[in-house]
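Researcher: Next sequence.
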Amino acid sequence: MTKNGNLSLLGAILLSYLFSYYLHLNWVSWASQHPEFLWNGKLMINNVDGYFYGSGAQKILYGMHEYNPRLSNVWGLGTSVITAFLVQFLPISLDEAMVYLPPIISSLIVIPIILIGRLYGNLLWGFLAALIGSIGWSYYNRTLAGYYDTDMFSVLLPAFILYLFLRSIRLRSLNSLFVALLLIVLYKWLYPQGLTIIYALIGVTSLYLVIFFFRDEFTYKFIALSSWPLIPTSWLVNIAVLLLLWYFLVKRDAIFNGVRWLQILAGVGLLLLLGGHGVSFILSKVSIYTSESKEVSGLHFLNVIETVREAGKIPIDIVADRIIGSLIGLLIASIGYLLLVIRWREFIIALP
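Model: Next structure:
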């Protein structure tokens, strides 16, 4: 890319990021006018789950909550660790970090959207898509300033992973794929409940490659590598195996010369993934979201998941409204996505 091209890319990212961040601060100006949102003169966060992750940050920073059993593995809570790290090394309080971290982190979603636009030769459309994507209703109100929770990572990292998958397919780049898989390991730490999206993304991409590029060595290199980050073991083992496989597939390609060897390697990875964790993990999520409340001896026991708004029964017009603003907007967007897949069929992997 030329120097002017790089400047245009950086300018588009900076403008869209500032646009997103500024609009995400709307809640601060509104809440500051209401005393009930203030505690000791500082804004409180507006999400109850955030206090759990804030407690984790307190334990790391100040040694509090020593006897809280839910915080026994506080270093496994990525949100708490990142928050504590920022408070430790930046001149901000924990209260301030909890209020402002969501818009700072979530606005980064403009980067993969713009990069996808550039990858397909149109930076302007990537820029316009980033403006819309960063303030899409559901994403916006779950990442506003004060909404301190893991939601700020839930869509952000899959967006980066999607871009890197698309880039790896278009350029047959194992380096792009390797970075994407490292992000999957990071995603397991920051938002483990979102791994169903990653399973689906890897599954659809693998299926796409097998159908359209059955004899292409990259297909089986992709499957062999992408199976490992999701295998349930420590992140150190995940990264070590990834490094080893990547090294042999990129630097020592002669060892696995030929499609047959790569197919065997891919098959081993797939069996380990599905047999070890994949199927049971997906089925457990399906069970949670499809189980219903029960009545026992005249007592009505409500399934906890039914109290979560997005897991309940929501009319299609509200779903459409929250996705893109209206039913007509959803129809236009669906047609647009279909045309996108017809023009560049690899965009089918974005379906999950």
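Model: The mean pLDDT is 88. The two ends are 31 Å apart (CA to CA).
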